[in-house]
Amino acid sequence: MDKTVASAAEAVADVPDGASLAVGGFGLCGNPMDLISALLAQGTRDLSIVSNNCGVDDWGLGLLLGAGRLRKMTASYVGENKEFERQFLSGELEVELTPQGTLAEKLRAGGSGIGAFWTQTGVGTQVSEGGLPLRYGSDGRVAVASPPKEVRVFDTPRGPREHVLEQAIFTDFALVHAAVGDTHGNLVFHSSARNFNPLAAMAGRVCIAQVERLVGPGEIAPDDVHLPGVYVQRIVEVGTDIEKRIERRTVTERTAH
Length: 257
What we know:
By secondary structure, the protein is of the alpha/beta class.
């Protein structure tokens, strides 16, 4: 039951070129930076990443992006990364933009054994009708566009409504960050780091968790567990003094009284 590994490098050593990964984090909050840095250091490339966003130019998944290691990115928000924009518009990177709630549910469904689900989100848009640019060509034209999705009508409390069929997401690996974990893989997340980390963890066939503090079995009360250890295969302690960045710091200037 002891799932601990000695280092982040050891934890990701078997992630091959071309692997798919679900990566936790929301903005720059809850990014599994030690695991991302270890992937960068070992040279893994052609990765297909599923995450809420792609970090910024010099932090988060932006490190792998800037090194040219990503083949495809599935995300709901990409507005803080200029290199992301450049690679997408130049045809170097395939991008699948997905509504944020839909992306969260696709990950949760993948980890729950649900193959697909119906949602009203995206009906009547390119999300359901197809035509969203996935990859541009070198000439600036759309080389690959999203296909149309199946739409059906279901009864709702507000009457019949169209729903679009969305397929679940599951990946080869998941990389997540938690505040506390025990050696059995049970995890506790801090505040908004809980947004996408548990969902990403569920979607990976092999989930690798970095934790700030590692404790023994039974030290986390059952009611305090946010993600059961059944979803986690490897856990590595990275300490509490790791660097944590804020995506945009907004402050109010002090005024003299």
